[in-house]
Amino acid sequence: MTEREPEHRTVLLRGGDVHSPADPFATAMVVERGHVAWVGSEGAADAFAPGVDEVIDLEGALVTPAFTDAHVHTTATGLALTGLDLSGARTLDDALALVREFAAARPGDRVLLGHGWDAARWPERRHPTRAELDAATGGRPLYLPRVDVHSAVATTALLDLVPGVAALDGYHPEAPLTGAAHHAVRAAAHAAVTPAQRTAAQRAALRHAASLGIGTVHECGGPEISDEDDFTALLALARAEGLPRVVGYWAEPVAGEQDAARVRALGAVGAAGDLFVDGSLGSHTACLHTAYADAPHTGAAHLDVAAVAAHVTACTRAGLQAGFHAIGDAAVTAVVDGVRAAAQTVGLARVRAARHRVEHAEMLTPETIAAFAELGLTASVQPAFDAAWGGEDGMYAERLGVERARTLNPYAALLRAGVPLAFGSDSPVTPLDPWGGVRAAAFHRTPEHRVSVRAAFTAHTRGGWRAAGRDDAGVLVPGAPADYAVWRAGDLVVQAPDDRVARWSTDPRSGTPGLPDLTPGTPLPVCLRTVVSGQTVFVRPNE
């Protein structure tokens, strides 16, 4: 697969609203050689019109930086888009009916792949049993991960493809698989996906991202999640075709320069992403200081302080970004203590400069938030998690109790402390939906954790670039990469969701560029065009 040569055209966009700090009232923009060349007013645009290759009349549309989704599992997202999606099932019976229909429609598939079930939302309050799935599939292999992808149910035929699975940690004859047993069964299921199916899934996921105004995704791969062929094929596909940019992270422990070189050889920018310190709250595998409210244990710990410190020390010395998946408060504490130990070894300044990152970081305390700021850690977070599972009646409250659940995902406190935020979806755990993510952060179910729409939008655009080490992108100013999206949107406002959010720069007289009204219930903007490095990767049909 050869890398696609970009076609460099000089383009003038005019007659709309351009979201740019360079000119808060801009209506036009010039793109040249893949970068923003100029942003300004309609009158000044006349001087550029004769010298450009193309003029795009925005017809009142809004132009913003393209979104960055800072946590995606691309192949799994594509398989969910093209396979069995149980996220809409309202009951266990609904889910089993969808399994039966899918199996009947795919007689030639070696292994049936599904996604998205969540028993916490079903009136039955239980997962599908192996016997029920065996009956629904007619005895065929089926892999069906829970919505958080940290546990799964599988048919007998699939388990039979994994010799010795019953002896692995996390195997439960009648409960969802977790830990090593889950990873082994997932590997067996994914091994049945042909290269052609994998490419089709990756292409479907990236095209879907482009249709939502996403210009860059951070692929969070690793040996416990996918495999090296999947990872390198995805990076090659994104380079070769007109698709969103893919920034790759490979979650494998690094002990020294040789390991770091191997991570780089795969095309990864960091040994980060889902390097698991713990699991998830939904699957009762997030690691807690105090037991779950609905289970008599504290979850699972995969890496301790010493392992975190060793990884961060080796990565920092090698000039490689490190990072971890940490959700529970005990897991976050382990990360903070490990990174602090690494800083004592290699120096705080070097650790801060490396911009190590923590994925999810849901259960934080004032002390761990302060440590994130001290150590220069980026919080790569998913606001849709709160929208899906927050609130006093949500899954978080069921797992932790209402009081502990209220502390989750404290975005306002992170911003006040100066912790960099990068927003993502963890797709397919929650769907690719960048404006929905911005809305979820601005209208967090716990009001004191809400941030302004402007701050949330920045975390979903410039924040993703900064999380990958780039400060010159994710904003439409001269010299920045021409990654932008064009939107059909309603009136633009400078919006704070309520008086509990600091209203800095919310007065129209401040000259702050406006954004669409994201008040819950209002329609979200519709993407008309997405451009990456000056190259169009999506145009809405009939526009």
Automatic annotation (TrEMBL):
CDD domains: YtcJ_like. Coiled coil: none annotated. It comes from the Bacteria. GO terms for molecular function: hydrolase activity, acting on carbon-nitrogen (but not peptide) bonds. Keywords: Hydrolase. Residues 54-538 form the Amidohydrolase domain. Pfam families: Amidohydro_3. This is Amidohydrolase.
